[in-house]
Design brief:
The structure holds 2 protein chains of 2 kinds. By secondary structure, chain A is α/β, with parallel strands linked by helices. Chain A has 11 helices and 18 strands. Chain B is mainly α. The longest helix of chain B has 30 residues. The chains are: A alpha/beta, B mainly alpha. At the A-B interface, strand 2 and helix 4 of A face helix 4, helix 7, helix 11 and helix 13 of B.
Chain lengths: 372, 372
């Protein structure tokens, strides 16, 4: 459970700092009668070894809870289809809490439904909910997975022999850039001569291009590959076949690369879904805006693979312990982008919660690649 | 076209004027074109039932859920109609060129470019009356689609390039171009993690048809299907198209402007798909982004072939397929089957309908009779 959140709720209950504390909580109180039906909607398949599987694993974690009924639908496109799926879950299954998990479900679809069905709670994965604009029965949850990519980078930095790493990325948007940059900074904290070559495939699910990108990164000398695409399966399998190391993303891909899998940055949505399910059962107010990282158990690391050296484990574990304490700043000045321009001044340090990181538009020094 | 015999347009020539004394032929012929696909559907259903039994599921439950999810309630019917509406237009993009014996499968490209053109002209024209803006957006969307598919037609007519391949490749180019423009020149800077064009404004969106959840795209689709049925079967232009489809040489010998007919038919089809993209922007998304490439262009191919390229038959076929898709979610949730189940059924129907072509003209009872 997020410590940050618990504190803000206690404040609310005590009636202290009323206006400030209201940010992040809903005014709506739903008292549960009988089983609570919770709907999950995924844009891809539930077993994609990636983004959707991570959510489906979170959903599976609450299936066994007493008084909770889970309904799920996969491969729902980000069109009116998702509105109809939400309506169908409410009308035919009696769902009172919905988790449309894909980024593009939020605006306009989830917002439309939230306005129409004020007695149902909607929580969206991403960071888009804004108290000043959006309905109070809607909300957002997200995790600081960049921390995990930093730890991936630390392990990769120890394991690389060529001092060249590869990153297969979907689109040059802030969430992806944070991951590329975190991975690079992690690796360069081990050895500043390490470079990370990045290839953007242009879309979230492009299996053929992902395989090509992985192959060309390895051909160019990279010996550890990681990625940020919806389903890392192709990248991980291709890397394993080529005999290079992989750092995973989204979910655990150890099974796909028993030899070369080092570790991975995974979502741990079970934490979030259990918290919401618990509140739904007790009829308590649900928070509108939840975020957390390693410390809050929103994000976790895959267990180390057989190839990882003791030095790498020791280094990564100690950084992880620092991160769990809180306030660990991956992005701190002086920091230059890969064109030599200073992007963070010497006296600045941004921990994962910093708002400045959310509009990231640069690749840090050490990344080989271009935006746009 | 070497394989024009396989195309339904060839069969339209077979409805040669019936001998006047055989008054029943007209009705028997109509009955044949209903009974053959019906038989194909029954065979596909039987095959699918076997598939379900192998999975340990009850086919009767499946039928019940399809009925409830697709047509069982006002909500389901509206859901079905919504799913059918873009498909009416994209199916026309296949069916119109098919009258000339062309197989155009790149409607998806026209959909995204049509949507992009519509979304692109809206922000600069902000402030003009919504109705005028919507008309201009329709013109922009239809023009973009017409140019794109018209170009595939031009390549066929003037350069002899296979239109199936060229339209498919043009669709890939269109999507790449679309992504480039949405993520580059036309990107709304506020759309951080999901690159989109600027919002067209809530006041400029299409509303719903009174008393329903259905947008006007359905009406556009139905009007277009009827209008093109009349164009193809009741005008000299349509007759020219069908003659060309029957035999290119014969059409040339008759002095028909074959090149022009090909380009116009392709452009008209493209305009329909472009309109589908415009509706998706003006009624659903409110902006252009990657969600426009939702596969409507490809689903349209399936429907056009199921309808045997008859514009009027597209309407029921789109409703059947829309209904199947609409019930897909309920089947996933209630029977715990993956999304791919409905795709298996669609595939079986498609193969059965295509294979059933062979039964036309095989049964003497349906054929014109000689005078006794």
């Amino acid at each position: 459970m997020s410590r940050r959140f618990t504190a803000s709720r206690r404040e609310l209950l005590l009636g202290a700092g009323s206006a400030a504390a209201l940010v992040g909580t809903s005014g709506h109180m739903a008292f549960a009668k009988g089983p609570v039906t919770i709907g999950f909607i995924y844009v891809g398949t539930k077993d994609d070894y990636g983004y959707n599987q991570a959510h489906a694993e979170g959903a599976a974690a609450i299936k066994g809870m007493k008084g909770i009924k889970v309904v799920e639908e996969e491969k729902v496109p980000e069109t009116l289809d998702v509105e109809k799926t939400m309506e169908s879950m409410m009308a035919l299954d009696g769902a009172t809490l919905l988790f449309p998990t894909s980024f593009g479900y939020f605006d306009p679809f989830m917002l439309n439904e939230a306005k129409k069905h004020t007695d149902v709670q909607f929580r969206h994965c991403g960071g888009l909910w804004d108290k000043s604009k959006h309905p109070m029965n809607a909300g957002s949850y997200f995790g600081y997975i960049g921390q995990g990519q930093y730890l991936n980078g630390v392990v990769a930095g120890h394991m690389t022999k060529s001092k060249k790493l590869g990153f297969v990325a979907a689109k040059p948007i802030p969430q992806v850039l944070i991951n590329i940059n975190s991975f690079t900074l992690g690796a360069r904290s081990v050895d500043p001569s390490i470079t990370v070559q990045v290839i953007f495939t242009g879309d979230w699910s492009m299996p053929v291009k992902e395989a090509e990108a992985t192959n060309s990164l390895i051909d160019a000398g990279a010996d550890v590959i990681t990625c940020h695409v919806d389903g890392p399966k192709v990248v991980v399998e291709t890397t394993e076949r080529r005999g290079a190391f992989t750092c995973g993303y989204h979910a655990n891909q150890q099974k796909l690369a028993p030899k070369g899998y080092l570790t991975g940055a995974e979502w741990n949505w079970a934490t979030v879904y259990k918290m919401f399910a618990d509140k739904a059962l007790k009829g308590e107010t649900m928070p509108n805006f939840v975020r957390g990282g390693l410390a809050d158990n929103f994000v976790k690391m895959s267990p180390y693979g057989p190839a990882v050296s003791d030095a790498a484990k020791k280094n990564a574990d100690s950084v992880k312990a620092e991160m769990v304490k809180g306030g660990y700043a991956v992005f701190k000045g002086p920091l230059k982008d890969n064109k030599g321009k200073e992007v963070i001044a010497a006296d600045k340090a941004y921990p994962e919660t910093a708002i400045e990181l959310e509009s990231m538009n640069y690749l840090v020094e050490g990344v080989i690649g271009n935006l746009a | 076209m070497s394989d024009s015999a396989a195309l339904p347009s060839a069969t339209t020539l077979a409805d040669a004027p019936a001998p006047v004394f055989d008054r029943g032929y007209r009705y028997r012929h109509a009955l044949e074109s209903i009974l053959v696909p019906a038989l194909a559907l029954v065979l596909a259903a039987a095959g699918f039932a076997l598939f379900l039994i192998c999975l340990g599921q009850s086919p009767l439950d499946f039928v019940d859920l399809v009925w409830r999810g697709a047509f069982g309630s006002a909500f389901s019917i509206q859901n079905t109609l919504l799913k059918a509406s873009p498909l009416l237009l994209t199916a026309l993009c296949v069916a119109l060129p098919a009258q000339l014996g062309l197989v155009i499968i790149g409607g998806e490209g026209a959909v995204v470019l049509g949507g992009l053109a519509a979304a692109a002209i809206a922000p600069p024209l902000a402030g003009i009356p919504p109705l005028l803006l919507q008309v201009l957006m329709m013109i922009a969307g239809m023009s973009a689609g017409a140019v794109w598919i018209g170009f595939a037609g031009w390549l066929r007519a003037k350069r002899g390039i296979n239109e199936t391949i060229s339209s498919l490749l043009l669709a890939y180019i269109a999507i790449a171009l679309f992504n480039h423009i949405v993520e580059g020149p036309l990107r709304d800077p506020a759309s951080l993690n999901k690159p989109s064009t600027a919002d067209i404004g809530a006041g400029n969106m299409f509303g719903y048809l009174p008393g329903t959840d259905v947008h006007p795209g359905l009406i556009f689709g139905i009007i277009a299907c009827i209008a093109f049925y009349i164009l193809i079967f009741k005008t000299s232009f349509g007759f020219g198209c069908r003659v060309t489809g029957g035999s290119l040489r014969a059409a040339q010998l008759q002095g028909l402007p074959v090149t022009r007919l090909i380009i116009i038919a392709c452009a008209l089809g493209g305009a329909c798909a472009g309109l589908a993209g415009m509706v998706e922007v003006a009624a659903v998304q409110g902006r252009a982004n990657a969600s426009l490439a939702a596969g409507y262009g490809y689903a349209g191919i399936l429907i056009a072939f199921l309808a045997r390229q008859n514009p009027l038959a597209i309407i029921p076929m789109a409703v059947v397929l829309g209904g199947l898709t609409a019930s897909g979610g309920l089947i996933q949730r209630r029977m715990d089957l993956p999304d791919a189940t409905v795709l298996v059924l669609q595939g079986m129907i498609f193969v059965a309908i295509l294979a059933s072509e062979t039964f036309y003209g095989r049964f003497a009872w349906f054929q014109p009779r000689r005078a006794p």
